[in-house]
Amino acid sequence: MITLQLIGIGTGNPDHLTLQAVKALNAADLILIPHKGDEKADLAQLRQDICADVLTRDVEIAEFTLPVRDPVITDYIDRVNHWHDAIADCWMTEINARPGVQNVALLVWGDPSLYDSTLRIAERVSKRVDLQLNVVPGITSMQGLTAAHQIPLNALGGAFQVTTGRQLRDHGWPADADRLVIMLDGHCAFQTLEPEGIHIWWGGFVGMPNEITISGPLTEVAQKITETRQRAKDDHGWIMDIYILERG
Ligand SMILES: C[S@@+](CC[C@H](N)C(=O)[O-])C[C@H]1O[C@@H](n2cnc3c(N)ncnc32)[C@H](O)[C@@H]1O
């Protein structure tokens, strides 16, 4: 029986780590860290730094190269499913290489429940090995964004919808929603909206030392956001950003 711990680590600030996360990391005997290639090497390094900061005992840390999505598979869902299979294979290879290992931990960006597939990959692994799963919640980028702007996530008594840049671009503003949280948007999908009457709260690298925030009516700040985002991406090599839109 292998215990697999999926540990939410927050969004890039080592101080986001909860005491529960620290305990879970120290209970592990193997920590797996994905390596995503050069431009995101600092994300692997951040995970290494977190481990160095909080581990009070000797725990083996194994970096593995994250497989890339197969460009030959044209259907998006098929391509992602195939990719998850390949990542599950990587986890199994690392675990099988260490026959005595009983408690394996993965540091999950933000929280494992939010636009993250670690749980889906764990389900694949559970079909191959007797697995006990332990999920440790983490601070999400949504919470990082609302904290940075000092705003509540919902309007008074209101609902909000969390979706992706791709959904917003392809299907427009969802019916029945006045407040949206947009994640995974590489192309500033807010530019596809009629900006009149929309307010935006945008954040890049939220929670991190180079956090950037911009907010205001979309008519006034859209261009500033796209330019700032591009500059930050050029300077840093990559960017993660998230935003809230409200209409009416
Ligand atoms: C694969 S999802 C992971 C989300 C993560 N599980 C969470 O709880 O926030 C990656 C997306 O989360 C958002 N994100 C994650 N970390 C962020 C950060 N530090 N600053 C801004 N956006 C972030 C971005 O929208 C990014 O495209």
From TrEMBL:
Keyword Transferase part of the UniProt annotation: yes
Pfam families: TP_methylase
Lineage: Bacteria, Pseudomonadati, Pseudomonadota, Alphaproteobacteria, Rhodobacterales
Enzyme type, top EC level: transferase
EC numbers on record: 2.1.1.152
CDD domains per record: Precorrin-6A-synthase (cd11643)
Keyword Methyltransferase: yes
Catalytically driven reaction(s): precorrin-5 + S-adenosyl-L-methionine + H2O = precorrin-6A + acetate + S-adenosyl-L-homocysteine + 2 H(+)
Molecular-function annotations in GO: precorrin-6A synthase (deacetylating) activity
Biological process, per Gene Ontology: cobalamin biosynthetic process; methylation
Organism: Halocynthiibacter styelae
Protein name per the record: Precorrin-6A synthase [deacetylating]
InterPro entries cross-referenced by the UniProt entry: 4pyrrol_Mease, 4pyrrol_Methylase_sf, 4pyrrole_Mease_sub1, 4pyrrole_Mease_sub2, CobF
UniProt entry keywords in alphabetical sequence: Cobalamin biosynthesis, Methyltransferase, S-adenosyl-L-methionine, Transferase
Domain Tetrapyrrole methylase: 4-221
Pathway(s) served: Cofactor biosynthesis; adenosylcobalamin biosynthesis
